Amino acid sequence: MKLKHTLAALAVTALATGTAAVGVAGTAAASPTQPVTTAATTLAASTSTAGSVRLDLTPSSDQLAKCMPRAKLTVKVALRTDKTGRDVFRIEGDNLPPNRDYTVFLLEQAGAPFGAAEYIGDLHANAKGKGQNEFDLIVQEGFASTLVNGQRVRVDLNRVGVWFADPKDDDFCLGAGSPVTPFDGDNEAGVQAFNSATAVALPAP
User: Fold this and answer.
1) What is the pTM of this model?
2) pLDDT the model gives residue 146
């Protein structure tokens, strides 16, 4: 796994509507472990002020939620781009599956097929399932850009997703042979573990 703290979006993918965005392709359709996010999702605890935002991430599927019922993952963003040229993105976890690395992305869509994606950093959970990291990057004004039918299209990246960095790290819940996804620097990761589908979107500019 490679640490990456500020990257451009990773590849060009076609969305179900036929439009394209710069990003990493997820699974083509919903699966038992990676359901498509819908607008009817209930909002979880989240707060936003003029200078900061907090998101409580939740497991990405019911199956994962049952396997890690006490897991907590919180994102706090200090919005400082106007003053310092970057925001501060802090992620903290407790009761996570221990001794594992996780990859952290800004996303167009919280759930599959994810749309545009930006790999912003990594999170390590120690033997007690605790972990934290802090990234300096532009969050509030973060976006991907691509050409669609010759026209420049902007896609805001205001959702968050966290993946098991190693394909074997989700086997404790999903069993051997669970999907291998491209959401790591070496192009091999497990399934999405957490996302912000039940939280408000990060503030757009």
Assistant:
1) 0.78
2) 86
Comparing 48-52, 59-63, 96-100, 141-145, the range with the smallest average pLDDT is: 48-52
How far, in Å, CA of 93 to CA of 143, rounded? Answer: 26
Domains located in the chain, CATH noted: 45-195 (2.60.40)
Give the model's pLDDT for residue 160: 98
Residue 167 has pLDDT above 90, yes or no: yes
Whether the predicted pLDDT of 204 surpasses 50? yes
Q: Cβ distance 3 to 80 under 8 Å?
A: no
